[in-house]
Amino acid sequence: MKICLLNDSFAPVLDGVVNVVMNYADYLMRDHGADVMVGTPKYPGADYSAYPYSVVPYQSFDTTALTNGYRTGNPFSGKAVAELAAFQPEIIHSHCPASATVIARLLREECGAPIVFTYHTKYDIDIARAVKVKLAAKESIRAMVSNIEACDETWVVSRGAGESLKALGFQGDYRVMYNGVDFEKGRADAALVARTTADYDLPEGVPVFLFVGRMMTYKGLPLILDALKLLADSGQDFRMVFVGKGPDQAILERKATELGLMENGRAGKCIFTGPIYDREALRAWNTRADLFLFPSTFDTNGLVVREAAACGLASVLIEGSCAAEDVTNGRNGFTIEETPEAMAALLLELCRDLKRLRAVGDCAMEELVLSWRDCVSTAYERYQVVLDEKRRGAFDKKKQPMDLLVSLTARSMEESERYRQIRRELFGDFKESAVGMMENIQDAEDALEQLFDKIGETVRREIDSHHLR
């Protein structure tokens, strides 16, 4: 099967969704013999030559200051769409509702393959953060939902994610398709743990709490700090390790200092390690910690919670959050009300019984962890069903108001690509003679005039056929 995976980010940017796309590509090829191509916005200096699958980077704009390190792709890159279309994918799988899904729709016009879309995160919160004008943010969210509804099948990574999508106005059906974990079950080697954590003040017998992820206040990190202040005031010693980076890190370090958990930004009871990209080093931290703290109501899946579980590390989660799905309080994790007081009370109780944490962590390892191999196999089986439904015509009537514009854009891009080919052919022999060059220029002008006449005819024909004149 030929599968095109699209996302609005890829290496060198590393985040949860990029991790998903990479694992999909790897296991689709490794276990199912699929031919995979990835489309992503271009990042300066990125080299994709070493990947076992083709990566097509398309034009992007520098929006890193506005979007916390992400570039924005130009979905109307005719060259990129032509290259993706030449691949002739049977399945198009988009993992972001922005430019990736616009390209998916253009690509569907070119090759007819159905689009599967996965809703990974609450994009409306990031939109509201980046777009300060409420009306503009509202319209952006509406456009995002419309883009998702235009896809042929929608997947969500948890039941809560599906409810979140419905709350934004999504009118279609969705299917829950879980993400996996690339950690093998089991704790890391003791020697690796010792090497990884050697430079940090982690006294034996003192409980270690861990958070891994983007340093964003909306992930509940201020709640952690407030709870730790209460815990410190009770006389309980501990270490809290934050692994990751993000735009709110300075705010969090300042708050930790104000609460007496750090000294002038230097590590104390709270330690900020910065980002750690080495997967074995992350396994070592998950093994060294006694408890994973993840009071986020933003995340739709909480992949880091499953990664912690793979290492036998139990988590503290907010009751009713997406990350707490399938977690039974006191059995394979812990759930609390969304207050610092509730977290502090639980931490104080658990610090007095660390053996219990090990038992709950073991249960989490057995009950909460899904391998990427199993998850991608489930996805591959579903791809087959989607293709069968496509053959039966199940998606033929699935049209959106913007589909006409997408169709016209795709045709215009196709014509533009044809013009570029004509230009390359006509101007390829410029060195032969000045006379030949002048003749070629005239030929190019004639071809260009015919091209625009053809585009105009196409537009008029499409408008007439839809009674929009």
What does this structure look like?
The structure is a single chain. The protein is elongated. The protein has 16 helices and 15 strands. α8 links the parallel β10 (208-212) and β11 (239-243). The chain has a 7-stranded parallel β-sheet with strand order 3-2-1-6-7-8-9, with helices on both faces. A 6-stranded parallel β-sheet has the order 12-11-10-13-14-15, with helices on both faces. It has a two-stranded antiparallel sheet with strand order 4-5. Helix content is 48%, strand content 13%. The protein starts with a strand and ends with a helix. It is an alpha/beta fold and 469 residues long. It has helices at residues 16-32, 78-86, 99-111, 123-130, 134-149, 159-167, 190-197, 221-233, 249-258, 279-288, 303-310, 340-351, 354-367, 372-391, 403-427, 434-465, and strands at 2-6, 35-41, 54-58, 60-61, 72-73, 91-94, 115-119, 153-156, 175-176, 208-212, 239-243, 270-274, 291-294, 315-318, 334-336. Mean pLDDT is 85; it is low at 422-441.
What is the topological layout?
Elements: E1 2-6, H1 16-32, E2 35-41, E3 54-58, E4 60-61, E5 72-73, H2 78-86, E6 91-94, H3 99-111, E7 115-119, H4 123-130, H5 134-149, E8 153-156, H6 159-167, E9 175-176, H7 190-197, E10 208-212, H8 221-233, E11 239-243, H9 249-258, E12 270-274, H10 279-288, E13 291-294, H11 303-310, E14 315-318, E15 334-336, H12 340-351, H13 354-367, H14 372-391, H15 403-427, H16 434-465
Parallel strand pairs: 1-2, 1-6, 2-3, 6-7, 7-8, 8-9, 10-11, 10-13, 11-12, 13-14, 14-15
Antiparallel strand pairs: 4-5
